[in-house]
Amino acid sequence: MPIPADWPTTEAEALAEQERLRPLVQAHDDPGRDDPGRDELVAGVDVAYDDDRDLVAAAAVLLHRDTLEVVEQATAVGRIAFPYVPGLLAFRELPAVLDALAALTRTPDTVVCDGYGLAHPRRLGLASHLGVLTGLRTLGVAKSPFTFDHHEPGAPRGSWTPLTDPATGEEVGRAVRTRAGVKPVFVSIGHRTGLDTAVRTTLDLARHYRLPETTRHADSLCRRALADAQRTGTSAN
Known about the structure:
alpha+beta; eight-stranded mixed sheet; 27% helix
């Protein structure tokens, strides 16, 4: 899994790329879609790292939305593409994620990322970045609110409150209660998806646990792929 030749290698280059791509994000459902919240095939993507060996493993797991059964899955292992810089994590993860998605034989209707979309300082987290690069509908479901503010949603499942930028007051996502009495997840638009649709999709995929099944499966698979690479002595050098 080679890193693309034109991939940013410095913080300045990555910041410039985010500024270039940000205006391309479509922060609403596709015009004319009859039922934007009922996509059949939904993929989850996630990554695991071994920084000491310069390894990253990505997983893409395709689920049927109604049954939550795994339809297909794929992994990719390669070199870490970018150093750790808060706000620029997409540049570490995307080459591997793109390869894992490309290995699927069926195209997902929507991709759920373990991370942020518009809930990002420059409004281009992993979910939005991935959506712009691939043209796929994407959304982000994160475990923490990053640098944004929210009030605790009500205790019942499905309750939500706005996730807002403290500097501007802009709503960048929602804190969503996926299980009654369990801490919320943080949902944001990625690309070609409205916020109502992103919340609805998250709740459909998180029927039994706090996190969506897409994220749970992708997290487990990328960790196994990384462990296999470590065990067999795979090297990124």
